[in-house]
Amino acid sequence: xxxxxxxxxxxxxxxxxxxxxxxxxxxxxxxxxxxxxxxxxxxxxxxxxxxxxxxxxxxxxxxxxxxxxxxxxxxxxxxxxxxxxxxxxxxxxxxxxxxxxxxxxxxxxxxxxxxxxxxxxxxxxxxxxxxxxxxxxxxxxxxxxxxxxxxxxxxxx
Length: 157
Prior knowledge:
The chain has 157 residues and is α/β, with parallel strands linked by helices.
């Protein structure tokens, strides 16, 4: 695994090799597991993290990552969004191709008030996005919801 540092960004690029198959599956994502997987002591400065296609089933917590702006947890087995309320700087979230079970699985989105891009595509069990979840996202510019089962969007006129 490596960390690419530049003047503007501390972006994690996780390089999974065939010898680390047991590390590829995370199942329950937490801050402590991230420290062990990435092998650094402090995730505070990380601004971008991609954990796509890692068999994540549940987000336990994402504490101590106040500068995280981009999070890609697509292509996992997540059924409900949890633990995102501690990510105040998050501006891009990709949860496409998960197993979000219902409209209630999106309740945690209301805490992402700086979110500008949200991808919930390929989650066919999402039928409705409630306005009290979306309205706090005052900076939302892009909502990608292709191949969802959306039948009602009450926040659009």
